[in-house]
Amino acid sequence: MSDVTPHPALRTRFCELVGVKYPVVQTGMGWVAGARLVTATAHAGGLGILASATMTLDELKEQIAAVRSKTDAPFGVNLRTDVADIEARIAVMVDANVKVASFAQAPRADLVSGCKEAGLVVMPTVGARRHAEKVAELGVDAVIAQGAEGGGHTGQIPTSLLTPDVVAGVGKDVCVISAGGWSSGAGLVAALALGADGIAMGTRFLLTTDSRVPDDVKAQYLATPVTGTVVSTRVDGAPQRVVRTDLVNKLEKSSWLANLPRSLRSAHQFRSETGASLWSLLKEGRAMKEGSELSWPQVVMAANAPVMTKAGLVDGRTDVGVLPTGQVAGVITELPSVEELMGRIIGEANATLDRLSL
């Protein structure tokens, strides 16, 4: 664990809620946030979150066991609420003494109550105040408020506006973790000044030596300027921030009809790799349709996301895959270890607070 002693102001109620040393969360990035990265984050004093959406149930069991074999520190698992085996996944988490259930979408009331009764801290991700207020009414313990600067699926509200708005909306009983654009200790202090109880980072953790992403792909991230990303709906029908590549430019110029064959192939490939049944994919598509404003063509396109992301982040095939990213990639220039990164962030936060005489 990082040996940097945090300023008293950095010992937030989120630290007390989940039992971590520092108020820093490593987000559950699909194909990226596996046992190695989560374990490194836990060892460094933050909260690491496993990404289970791209795992089978057996793979999730294996990954949780891998983390548990190396640390007894708290960590979390990110879940999709529309998968058929959601209850089984939660049961695995409870059995393994996982601390946090992080939801990519608004969880149902019964899922929230069930998790809380089992002792899990419930923390969904939101992109608008109204969404935060809705899940707060369900009794969640915390929310990750992701601003427009964030990577992957994201909204339109900048982090600097979303964070205080969500804080005002959920009241004092729900911890707010600010996400989107953070990479430094000064950013952590800024988020606390906006009313947050900590920060969550994805791209910054992806760009560490503990990340499983291939080095040549990391190099492409490091070469991306602040203006080198785009929020596109052409990948899977929903707004998603990715690195602007030749493939993305081509997708941006094509229609959903032209992309339909690729989407159908992606659905078949994802089904084969994850063991998902045709019925579960149809059920998931129906849930996406009912829980959003997506059209059926957009729902079909949604199969693109996991397969194209895997192609880019795991296989290094940026010619056929995409690279989800936050805008913060444009200001990141090197690849520290997670422990080095955490020590630097807390050291910078301490210095910033001292400079402000707090």
Number of domains: 2
CATH class descriptor name of the largest domain: Alpha Beta
Name of the CATH architecture of the largest domain: Alpha-Beta Barrel
Q: Give the averaged pLDDT, no decimals.
A: 89
Number of H- or I-type helical stretches: 16
In which order are the strands of the major sheet placed?
1-2-3-4-5-6-8-9
Series of H and E elements: HEHEHEHEHEHEEHEHEHHEEHHHHHH
Low-confidence stretches: 281-292
Q: What percent of residues adopt helix (DSSP H or I)?
A: 40-55%
CATH topology of the largest domain: TIM Barrel
User: What class would the helix/strand composition place it in?
Assistant: alpha/beta
Rg over CA atoms, rounded to whole Å, is 19 Å
For the largest beta-sheet, the strand count, sense and barrel status come to:
8 strands, parallel, barrel
What's the overall geometry? globular
Itemize the secondary structure elements and their pairings:
Elements: H1 13-18, E1 24-26, H2 35-44, E2 47-51, H3 57-68, E3 76-79, H4 86-95, E4 100-103, H5 109-117, E5 121-126, H6 129-138, E6 142-146, E7 152-153, H7 159-170, E8 175-179, H8 185-193, E9 198-201, H9 203-206, H10 215-222, E10 229-232, E11 240-243, H11 246-253, H12 256-274, H13 278-290, H14 296-301, H15 304-313, H16 338-355
Parallel strand pairs: 1-2, 1-9, 2-3, 3-4, 4-5, 5-6, 6-8, 8-9
Antiparallel strand pairs: 7-11, 10-11
Helix pairs in contact: 2-3, 2-16, 3-4, 6-7, 8-16, 12-15
GO molecular function: nitronate monooxygenase activity
Keywords: Flavoprotein, FMN, Oxidoreductase
